[in-house]
Amino acid sequence: MLSILRSLVQEVNSARDLQEALDIIVSRVQKAMGTEVCSVYLLDPATNRYILMATEGLYRKAVGQVSLAYSEGLVGLVGAREEPINLEDAPSHPRYRYFPETGEERFRSFLGVPIIHHRRVLGVLVVQQRESSRCFDEGEEAFLVTVSAQLAGVIAHSEATGAISGLSLTGEEAHDVSFSGVPGAPGVAIGSGVVVYPSADLDVVPEKPTDDIDQELELFRASVKAVREDIERVAKRLASQLRPEEQALFDVYLRMLGDDAMPGEVANKIREGIWAQGALKQVVQQYIRHFEMMDDHYLQERAVDIRDLGRRLLSHLQEGEQKHLNYPERTVLVSEELTPAMLGEVPKGQLVGLVSVKGSSNSHVAILARAMGVPTVMGLVDIPVNQLDGKDLIVDGFEGQIFASPSADLRSYYQAICEEEDELIRGLEVLKDKPCETTDHHRVSLLVNTGLMTDVVRSLSHGAEGIGLYRTEVPFMVKDQFPSEQEQREYYREQLEAFAPSPVTMRTLDIGGDKALTYFPIHEENPFLGWRGIRVTLDHPEIFLVQVRAMLKASEGLNNLQIMLPMISNISEVEESLHLIYRVYHEVREEGYDIHMPKVGVMVEIPAAVYQIRELADRVDFLSVGSNDLTQYLLAVDRNNPRVAQLYHSYHPAVLQALVRIAQDAHSVGKPVGICGELAGDPGGALLLMAMGYDSLSMNAASLPKVKSVIRSISREWAVQLLEDVLLLDSPHVIKSCVDLALRNAGFGRYLRPGKSSAMAVSEAAVS
């Protein structure tokens, strides 16, 4: 059966369209199971009815004509119950529904299994037999369930392809086809899709020898030179939009093209007698395999960079100049794997949105998109990329969702959001220099999370009171080796000077999990539960000591440095870290630097730390909750995985209860506690955190004006009552709705970003 299944999936994958795929399914399944009938009924989203789309054994004229209501007949029962139904005598079942146009009165045995994809019932796969004595056995039922599960993704992909082309299952015009992924960069973009394909396919390059090694070397060197010039041209074009730290991402590409890097290995292969294209293929695929085998999001993104470079080199080897695309005035760039170099190909001012099937919020593209302010959605699964070329698209970077062929109503809805967002930002500028204080005079510090220098510029313009989280791993990630003490010192000084005398909290190197360094790979089965954060730097004190020394020297004359330790899970890690920090402090003082001992704090982002707050607070000056990781660990959900991202919810009762406990325990021993993460930047979340007693909220710069506006307009007493109300609820979605309703009633409905339900409601209203 396994070989039959493999063959069936391959055939269906190669089908030209959905109808051909369904015809293949019913024909092959009927033959494999030796049944008289095999049929597929698909649920039409527009009408919510099951339509007979393909059959082998029933009358063919019934295809497309017979339909059942959502819960009608045995087919509707299978879909409603979302499990197989196996009957010896189907006509005797009370839910049996007879359609004379199908000719199915001859068949008595019935086995139906649901076709489900990402919790959505797509349809029902049915087999029938004439003899009432035959009951399909467990093995046959298991086979049909397996077939259904394997084909669900293919059917979803084909269905989406047809819908994007503008047709529903019934052949009627379709609009507002939506796909969900992971938010890469916030904002809403409306534009025209431009699909970027790989410039060349390394996989189809044949293996063959060469007689003229010198000529092959010359051809390859010319292609390397051409690609270097392409990348330098792109970097130059983006220079006015990016700071040096962001432009350093292009330096990563250029370093990969150095003689002592990938080109050197290709040249060695050519000298062994392999033609240039074959040598390039071997080396690139070796690199790709090496990176893709690593269970780490950031390292896997490097495989994308290697593949992109390989394709560009191959393209120059094969054709010389690359084909130039035509970019409309409002371009939404779409690709299986977007790369930084692709962004620079779009003429300045014309790139409004990005859509990438692969990748996560930690990829180079996402980093650049946030720096450039381009709304982005990453990690879309089962999306027919080639169908999006030239299509009108809406990119919702807040929710991680895109809409193809939007209706006039949906377009108008999102256009209003864009205009409101622009107007809102302009209106909030007057709050820049005003304190973040409630109407009953409760003061909260609003800080920002930074990593790139563009974050600092934006933060200062929005009135941030300091940096609550400076991600020191960013300078490490844009280099191909550990930055020296002097290089680190320059990075840190820039941040400290920009905010002096306000505090700047620098998190010590936090790599591992979804953040890794190409030159310091970490191979683990489960990187999120492995060697990361403080565990890495305590195992490598030479890294930790150099970093702390650079921080302390950078703070001379400013004395606004605070040091924060990530991923703390036990007291001994804090004590060992403090010992090293004090050691460096005295050494730097002995070298003649006039510095003050900075405040040292810990990040609370592992559940174990939640239950050790008092013990941790006894040893440090402050605590700061990393709400993103804490939520991820409490709920056992990888928020960068689109298959489970919907389970990640900052308003989960367990998360809120943990946050309340942390604030209470920290204050019980007289230590300040802050929070950095998405919840702090959400207006409703900020109100709850303020009510819990958090002393400071650190967020992305773009969120700061809205949070300040809300806090300045309500009393702490009002927020505390709201907190008490939601802590009695047991559903994250109900809690979120309750908070949103409170904000709307208080006059802040305009601050709430569009949820998927809101957009879909508009979409459904347009269809109906």
TrEMBL record:
Entry keywords, A to Z: Cytoplasm, Kinase, Magnesium, Metal-binding, Phosphotransferase system, Sugar transport, Transferase, Transport
Localization terms from the record: Cytoplasm
SUPFAM superfamilies documented for this protein: Enzyme I of the PEP:sugar phosphotransferase system HPr-binding (sub)domain (SSF47831), GAF domain-like (SSF55781), Phosphoenolpyruvate/pyruvate domain (SSF51621), Phosphohistidine domain (SSF52009)
Domain GAF: start-end pairs: 17-165
GO function terms (MF aspect): phosphoenolpyruvate-protein phosphotransferase activity
Membrane-crossing residue ranges in chain numbering: none
Family recorded in the similarity comment: Belongs to the PEP-utilizing enzyme family.
Name of the protein described by the UniProt record: phosphoenolpyruvate--protein phosphotransferase
Biological source species: Marinobacter metalliresistant
Lineage, opening ranks: Bacteria, Pseudomonadati, Pseudomonadota, Gammaproteobacteria, Pseudomonadales
